[in-house]
Design goal:
Blueprint: H1 2-5, H2 9-16, E1 22-27, H3 32-47, E2 52-59, H4 63-71, H5 77-87, H6 94-109, E3 118-123, H7 137-143, H8 149-160, E4 168-173, E5 183-186, E6 194-197, H9 201-208, E7 213-218, E8 222-226, E9 229-233, H10 239-246, E10 252-255, E11 285-288, H11 310-315, H12 329-347
Helix pairs in contact: 3-6, 4-6, 8-9
């Protein structure tokens, strides 16, 4: 099946736009190869009449600055950093910013009056400085004043893409790209004490526009839990990687729905709440770029946070309840490097 029906990833993505308007790429954040792939897609998308990439990491409040950046005569790296910093003070990873640069390079190559390629920010500015220390409705309404973020993103794509008969390749974290799949969560009064979340970004759009949405997962580790220990594992107990070895580890894109690969069983946390869970229940399609142990973390921009913006970074540092307290510039930089280095550390053992 792989040898007959799995073209290179670029071709696979473009083929999906023949039938769908919104194609999601679900990524494990900070994997360099994923971002290099998205950058490479920019000219291919444009040649095929797709003029938009959507990125989770970006605030609509600075969309005008981003539009100006990718259509300017000269590329402004400092402005690119400021645009990203406005959304997430820790997201100083060069490969994400270079998606902007790829759009700029394409636009500079076009005739003056030709339509320009856009990078669309799918999020808004969060206010972590208002977080009370507990994730409850009162606190989170302060942090997210424009409402549930995936509801906001779904409405953004609906307004900017679907209702305008446009198309978009949307790069988001893996859960946000779920379309049919519902992730299990603990529920006090639920049968077997869990229920399923079908309100991720992709879920919302798929529910309303089932014929317009296709979700693809970028090859990544899954998570396993034993007692209270969480650790990464190879998808389908290593079956995907074994298949790719038989295909000489060539980059490939292939369907999961109604395919032999989609029938592969998976017993990671993704299977929680499901009986005889298989890969096609998780995503519609799959892209393999490199074996897990070849994937690298993104390049940290060492001065992304510096003496001029450290006060704002500390004030609005995201998800403060998910990590140790960050107090200094050195702490911020260590946090960013640890996140990027963690990719190689986790994946190198798989």
């Amino acid at each position: 099946y792989i040898r007959k029906s799995a073209p290179d990833p670029q071709t696979y993505v473009i083929e999906k736009f023949r039938n769908y308007d919104v194609v999601f790429l679900g990524e494990h954040h900070m994997v360099k190869e994923n971002l290099l792939f998205v950058q490479s897609m920019v000219p291919e998308l444009y040649k095929n009449g797709i003029y938009n990439i959507g990125m989770e990491f970006g605030a609509f409040e600075v969309q005008d600055k981003l539009d100006a950046l990718v259509t300017s005569e000269t590329y402004n790296e400092q402005l690119a950093r400021e645009i990203m910093f406005t959304y997430n003070v820790t997201w100083g990873f060069q490969e994400y910013l270079d998606v902007y640069k790829a759009a700029w390079q394409l636009n500079r190559s076009l005739p003056e009056k030709a339509r320009k390629f856009r990078i669309i920010n799918l999020s808004y500015i969060f206010h972590w400085e208002k977080f009370t220390g507990s994730r409850n409705p009162e606190s989170m309404n302060q942090v997210f004043p424009m409402g549930t973020i995936d509801k906001f993103r779904a409405e953004m794509i609906e307004r900017e893409i679907i209702l305008k008969n446009e198309k978009i390749l949307a790069l988001v974290g893996t859960p946000h790209a779920y379309s049919r799949y519902g992730s299990a969560f603990y529920k006090y009064n639920g049968d077997n004490f869990y229920d399923f979340d079908h309100d991720w970004l992709g879920n919302r759009l798929f529910r309303k526009y089932p014929g317009k949405v296709f979700s693809i997962i970028l090859h990544q580790a899954f998570t396993m839990k034993e007692v209270d220990r969480y650790f990464p594992i190879s998808p389908c107990e290593g079956a995907i990687e074994k298949l790719m070895v038989f295909n000489d580890n060539k980059p490939a894109g292939f369907d999961l729905m109604h395919s032999p690969v989609g029938k592969l069983p998976d017993r990671s946390l993704n299977a929680m709440g499901y009986t005889d869970f298989t890969l096609e229940q998780l995503f519609d399609g799959y892209i393999f770029l490199e074996p897990l142990n070849k994937l690298e973390g993104c390049t940290v921009i060492s001065d992304f946070v510096n003496e001029t913006n450290i006060e704002q970074a500390l004030k609005n540092f995201p998800d403060p309840d998910w990590h140790e307290k960050v107090n200094t510039l050195e702490d911020v930089r260590k946090f960013m490097f640890n996140n990027s280095d963690g990719i190689a550390g986790q994946y190198g053992k798989l």
